[in-house]
Each structure stands twice: as C-alpha cells, then as structure tokens.
Design brief:
By secondary structure, this protein is an alpha/beta fold. It contains eight helices and eight strands. The chain binds uracil (URA) and iron/sulfur cluster.
C-alpha cells in the first residue's frame, strides 16, 4: 500500500464483542504493516478483565503464533505481574500496534519500533478492545503504548508509576478506566545491565496498578 493511502482509520466493527474485533482485524489496511507480517495479533485474556496491559507491538514469536506476549518479554512480564501479586487470569494483554514491524538482516527479523503514524492508524483497534473489555485500570508498557494513549509528548521516565486519569478528550470511551499507570517495557528490562534493579522497579510500578484495582 502506498504511504499516501495508509493512515486511514481502519474498519473497526461497531457491534459485537471481542471476537468481532478479532475477526475483522485481518482485513485491516489502516497502515502498511499488514503486508509483511505473518498475521495480526489481537489481545488475549479475560474478556471482562479489570486490568488491561498494553505493549508496543507483537514480536517475532507473537507474529508467528498470533498470540501476544508469548516470547521473552512476555515471560518477563508474567514474572513481574506475579511478583506484583496480579493473577494473570485477571489480565487482558494487548498491544498499541497489532502487526509486527521489522527489518530483515539475512534470515533474521529485527524488531523496529512502529512510527507515530502507524501507532495512530492502529489506535481504533486498541480503543475497540478497551471498549469491549471495560477495564478499571490500564497499564502502558513503554513509550509506544504511553504515547498511543497520552500523546507524543509523554516521557515514560517523567510519569512512570504514577496513577493518571484516562485522557477522555483524546480517546473517548463510554466507560473510561479509572486509572492509567505507565511503566517501562519488559524488553527494556531484558536489555538492561541493571536487570534486577529495573525488574524491581517494574514490579513496583505494577504494584501501583494492582493497588488501584
Ligand atoms: N512485546 C510487546 O510489546 N508485545 C508483545 O506482544 C510481545 C513483545
Ligand atoms: Fe491495521 Fe494496525 Fe495492522 Fe496497521 S498495524 S494494518 S493499522 S491492524
């Protein structure tokens, strides 16, 4: 798809539950990312989860399996949720962008962060999921998710671990979440040289979200 054609609001079902959203997703042409990805990766988890956790985009393993957070970052997230006393059964996990963006180097596929316009184009899908699940609390993992919800000026370091209101002026929802907590992305913890310390800080931020539940 030519760049000029992309960025149009994708077609998002106005009726039906999460399964209607999931079924419509493969037809999305809202940006160019569908073209090289294996498949879209919708969110997964309890349909009435009180907590929605939003990542960036599917990674290599998620792109192949069609399930969010099944790779290394997802396993670290699971451990952090558990350490924060959050039962993973009460969590719906999804991403700001539903298709994997990557570049190829030989046979390897290297993760590339989605651009701002791709995040904007994919926004209606995140909103559609949040509308169906209707969580009380939303956790945003990293800058892509943080900026998808709060806007491009958000800096994770400045707001992490803080309870913020849902920005209803930007993203109207019939029943907005009561609290939004931004923290770092688990893959940043995986890459960190101070992994134990950064893991503990992630757990502390998730504990703030847990207390708001
Ligand atoms: N990283 C994300 O942000 N989301 C996934 O689903 C997997 C890795
Ligand atoms: Fe549509 Fe989002 Fe995929 Fe772009 S990344 S094609 S907006 S589902």
């Amino acid at each position: 798809m030519a760049r000029e054609d992309a960025g149009a609001t994708p077609w998002v079902p106005g009726h039906g539950g999460l399964s209607a959203v999931r079924d419509a997703l493969p037809r999305c042409r809202g940006c160019d990312l569908w073209e090289h990805a294996t498949q879209p990766v919708p969110g997964a988890g309890a349909v009435d989860a009180p907590l929605v956790v939003v990542g960036e985009q599917p990674g290599d393993q998620e792109d192949r399996s069609g399930e969010p957070f099944v790779g290394p970052a997802g396993r670290l997230l699971d451990r952090a949720l558990e350490a924060a006393g959050i039962d993973r059964e009460v969590v719906y996990r999804t991403n700001a962008v539903k298709h994997f963006r990557f570049t190829t180097r030989g046979k390897r596929r290297i993760h590339e962060s989605p651009s701002r316009w791709q995040v904007t184009a994919c926004g209606p899908w995140l909103l559609a999921e949040l509308e169906r699940v209707g969580p009380r609390v939303v956790v945003l993992l990293g800058a892509t998710a943080g900026q998808a919800v709060h806007g491009p000026s958000l800096r994770v370091g400045a707001v992490r671990g803080r309870v913020m209101p849902w920005p209803s002026d930007r993203l109207p929802l019939p029943e907005p979440p009561e609290a939004v907590v931004t923290t770092v992305h688990p893959s940043a913890v995986l890459r960190s040289r101070a992994r134990d310390e950064d893991f503990a800080a992630l757990v502390a931020d998730l504990s703030v979200a847990a207390a708001a539940l």
